[in-house]
Amino acid sequence: MSTRLKRLVFWSLFLLFVIDAAVIYTLGTENDSGKGFLSEEAKEGKLLFQKYNCISCHQIYGLGGYMGPDLTNVMSTSGKGELYVKSFIQNGTQRMPDFQLNEKEINALTEYLRYVDKTGISPVINFEIEYDGTITQKSNQ
Amino acid sequence: MKKEIGVTFIFLSIIALLAGLLFGSLSAFQFVFPGLFDALPFFKNRPLHVSLVVSWIFLSVLGGIYYYLPKYCGLPLFSKKMATLHFWLFFITGLLILTSYFLGKFGGREYWEFPPVLAIPILISWLLLLINFFKTVLKKVGQWPVYLWMWATGICFFLFTFTEAYLWVLPYFRNNLIRDLTVQWKAYGALVGSWNMLVYGTAIFVMERIKGDESIAKSGLAFWMYFLGLTNLLFGWAHHIYIVPTAPWIRYISYGISMTELLILAKIIWNWKSALQHEKKDFYFLPYRFIIASDCWIFINIVLAILISIPAINVFTHGTHITVAHAMGSTIGINTMILLSSVLFIIDDVTKHQFSATEKNTIRTGFWITNFSLLIFWVSLVAAGAEKGVLIVENQLTFQAIMQKINPYLVAFACSGLGIFLGLLMVSVHPLLIIMRYFKTKKA
Q1: What are the C-alpha distances in Å from B107 to residues A60, B121, B267?
Q2: What percentage of chain B exceeds 70 in pLDDT?
Q3: CA angle B241–B55–B308, rounded 5-degree value
């Protein structure tokens, strides 16, 4: 393989990468169906979620630590919801620490989780497997 | 003569490895026995573990590069001072990061959970490396061997992905969860890709030295493999986010690219077939033995990686311990084995140290304990993940009930994790002592 060819392959890949990144930063991720729920409080909550490292035990869309449950849809799961969430955050459990949060922080975290809930579904449980190994989400029952 | 800066990096890397494994073992036990050792709770232990073992990978790989360039590639470092500055900047920032974890001060995200300002000195230290590396290697006349390409790629892309991982500080990215998650995991995919470039480059370098055959690193095949790896680094990361509601093409590209790993798999099998006759006697040479172990782990982990990149399988495995099996299998089985090989090679080289029979025995025993424990560790994680995945998708049990069910696997996981720690302790204790003796002679 000549050095010229190597350079050509490398820079072509790099160019594709830059284009790919540009589209992903914009069009590929434009669809945020939770947008309407991203209040100032929810934005605050998102930073608190990082500040207290909730992600070391919890997942959003399956991403994060596995000690606790996925929180993507905890606000809309039947039998859970706002009061349920707040009581966990306020008190902790045997496994989950009580972070001694004040009311403002608890509300912000809850608002953030409300926003997260509106963006989509996780885990995906209602799907059909296609012949090529991909899946399609069935509409909810 | 002064101390080799590369060896100083290696010394710190081994300390980071052992400390990281200690915190890792502790967090694994906290996972199964809640309330254990509350002075250092799980949510502090986990980042301590992750950051320290990631430091092990980077420090040992960079120590190797600083050592190999002048010694073996005929390329004296552009600036030794810069390398020393890189070391101290990294070391001091590292201490600050560890302190922030102990105090429970986070603010970042997975992998980089420390307060974001601490990313600045890391970025600066990496820029020093970048300048030093390119000022050094651009002097090379003639064809670059593939490992120089790989190191150059790894260093550049780390800088890129590290920056990309911090795009969230801009509201444009932060205030759209879908964009935020996608860009975050795009960056992390490339991050792992960039350290793999550095590590695999090192593996090829060490193999070339052991075999005394320079054509290994210059063949056309070696370069096609490199480009295949690069393509995966650039475009194959989206299996992390199959279930995030992005535009579907993001998933399809990644799915397609991930399947090209089948070619890598085929090449490994082909290599084995042709190499089987020669390997036996070399196996007694310690650095070589670790490379062979990494080869076996590459095989096992690529099979798993290919499987979990298929969306229909990924829905079951995503968000379960199978992901952990994949991550740990690769970082311990592949990266750590290769890096230990490089570390042993350097120690052998720099100290002209002949390992005594006892030292060799300790290292060999450690080698077997590590690999055997890792196998149990890996299988328990896969089993725990598979069971959890199926139970979640069937959606019948509560989270607590699921965790209860997979608990026996997680106990096996925690115990074998301790085995890995002990095994690697046995492997690295003599190297540490040898380096300390070497430092002493350099001071005198």
Answers
A1: 17, 16, 43
A2: 95
A3: 25
Q: What is the pLDDT of residues B276-312, one digit of tens each?
A: 556 555 666 788 888 888 888 988 988 898 898 888 8
Q: What is the mean pLDDT of residues A44-55?
A: 94
User: pTM of this prediction?
Assistant: 0.92
Candidate from B41, B46, B144 with C-beta closest to A65: B46
Contact A134 B46 (CB under 8 A): no
- Closest-CA distance, B363 to chain A, in angstroms, reads 33
Cα(B317)–Cα(B166) distance, integer angstroms: 28
The structural domains of chain B, with segments of one domain joined by +, span: 1-139, 144-283, 315-444
Question: Most B CBs within 10 Å: which of A124, A127, A130, as the mutation test of the B interface?
Answer: A124
Do residue A120 and residue B244 have CB atoms under 8 angstroms apart?
Answer: yes
In CATH, what is the architecture of A35-119?
A: Orthogonal Bundle (1.10)
Under DSSP, is residue A70 helix (H, G, I), strand (E, B) or coil?
Answer: strand
B-chain residues within 8 Å CB-CB of A141? Answer: none
Please name the residue of chain B whose CA is at the shortest distance from the CA of residue A43.
Answer: B175
Task: Give dist(CA B412, CA B130) in Å, integer.
Answer: 42
Asked if A66 lies within 8 A of B42 by C-beta distance, the reply is: no
Q: How far apart are CA B413 and CA B438, in angstroms?
A: 37
Is A127 near chain B, with CB under 8 Å?
A: yes
Q: pLDDT: is A125 or B260 the higher one?
A: B260
- Judge whether residue A124 has pLDDT over 80: no
Residues B101 and B47 sit within 8 Å (Cβ to Cβ): yes
Residue B383: partners with Cβ closer than 8 Å, 6 or more residues away:
B406, B409
A10, A38, A130: residue with CB nearest B175: A38
pLDDT in tens, B414-444: 999 999 999 999 999 999 999 998 888 877 5
Structure tokens at B356: 């005594």
**What span, in angstroms and rounded, lies between the C-alpha atoms of A43 and B106?**
17
Q: Which residues of B touch A77 (CB under 8 A)?
A: none
CB within 8 Å: B47 and A123? no
